[in-house]
Amino acid sequence: MEELNNLKRCVKEYRDVDNQIRALNKQVYEKRETRKIVEMEMVELVKLPFFSGVDRLKIDDDGSYIQIHRPETYSKAWSLSKKELEELHRAYFASTKNPTAEGCTTYVIENRKTSLVAREFDFNRVVKE
Predict the structure, then answer these.
(1) 80 and which of 3, 18, 32, 84 could share a cystine (Cβ 3.0–4.6 Å)?
(2) What is the phi-psi region of residue 72: left when phi exceeds 0, alpha when psi lies from -120 to 50, beta otherwise?
């Protein structure tokens, strides 16, 4: 009977922790939405000619800063689906007489590079520790 009581206690504790995590995740989602709205406002401001040469915004009170990534100046993170990878492999092996692992890697990267150039602004806060 003690085992059953221990299991019930664990299940309730699990539920309580899970509820707390769900509430925190909801708050995180809401904060990300708010940050996105602020980012859209920042984009409109940094597009102005006055800010054309600015690539970093200092935050005086904590030493951190916001790095501005302008369109066409950085590459987005990327991944490949299995289908895309298979297509690139087929194309590489069909077009290469002496295939190598390094050659295949270079081919995949070069073929993805142009589609990965960001077309929008991006902001990244850098915190000095």
Answers:
(1) 84
(2) left
Sign of torsion over alpha carbons 115, 40, 68, 48: positive
- DSSP for 17-38 reads HHHHHHHHHHHHHHHHHHHHHH
Tokens of 8: 């019930």
DSSP code for 51: G
Q: Is 92 exposed, middle or buried (0-12, 13-18, 19+ CB in 10 A)?
A: middle
Distance CA(30)–CA(23), nearest Å, equals: 11
Report d(CA 26, CA 18) in Å as an integer. Answer: 12
